[in-house]
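Students often ask what a 'structure token' actually looks like in practice. Rather than answer in the abstract, let us consider V-type proton ATPase subunit F, a protein of 131 residues. Its sequence is given first.
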Amino acid sequence: MALLAAVKGKLMSVIGDEDTCVGFLLGGIGEINKNRHPNFMVVDKNTPVSEVEDCFKRFVKRDDIDIILINQNIAETIRHVIDGHTSVMPAVLEIPSKDHPYDASKDSILRRAKGMFNPEDLSTFGSDNFS
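Now compare that with the structural description of the same chain:
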């Protein structure tokens, strides 16, 4: 899937704390589109929630972005906006940050995916990964 996205010129985007964004930027995902908009946003304690919401909405609308990575603690601040995103693309993946471990019970995308399977299907994947 990543190869297909690379062939089509699709991007990943990141909304996260400074460490998360720097890590992904060092990994080579940073881009600025023709309108001079980056595919990442560094969020700190002084970033207004409205700015995070606006950035997420911009990333969802961009046709060059296929995956949005967002620190889970930041996703919690805009949960109502993330829950409203029901399209398959771009995919939204909640990731941990250095200071906030991942909690599967808070991940709305995982909860939606869990509802698509019956318990027998989950045992195939290791149901303790979906708790």
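One point worth highlighting: Confidence is low (pLDDT under 50) at residues 1-7. Ask yourself how you might have guessed this from the sequence alone, and why that guess would often be unreliable.
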